[in-house]
Amino acid sequence: MNAEKIMARMQRTGVIAVLVVDRVEDAVPLARALLAGGVDIMELTLRTPAAVEALRRITGEVPEMLAGMGTVLSPAQVQEVKAAGAAFGVAPGMNPRVVRAAAEAGLPFAPGVVTPSDIEQALECDCRLLKFFPAESSGGLSYLKNMAAPFMHLNVRFIPLGGLDLTNLEKYLREPLIQAVGGSWLAPRELIKQQAWQRITDNARQATQLVQRVRQGGAQ
Known about the structure:
With 220 residues, the chain is of the alpha/beta class. Helix content is 45%, strand content 15%.
């Protein structure tokens, strides 16, 4: 799937599940639990030894899930996750070497930004989809709108992550500069360890219903 199709799917889905998976055997039931709640995009983070194999399992057994990899911090990891089937990559910061490696590998990539200088660096690398991280502790939506204002004519869009949940999801989704929201609250690490699949499905369904209300012209 190319970058344009991925962005369109992110816009439609509205929420991307951001996950830390400790056991490979949890990967497939986790993906299915999210799908049951309507969330069909996930970002597995490269924070555990199980992450890459978990990605392989999901891409092989749950093809309807669009699965990418986050916390991609080196060119070598770009190659690793691309080979494992990642549909896209994400990083917490803006590392030009990593972004260039992703471009060379044909891996759609969203680097992390938190300052105007970060955005300028990303634009130099031809990135238009950017991760705003950490979102709430950096000033939240009001800060993002002010920071992004000089660049919006360049069709820059953002995925905020960090401190978001159902209490503030709607205000982010209503902003045109938001492509989708990163949701680590959908399936926290402890819920995955507990194999609490129904709770994860319920969390996903709540988020999906809110997205549908906002993005399909629901009540303000």
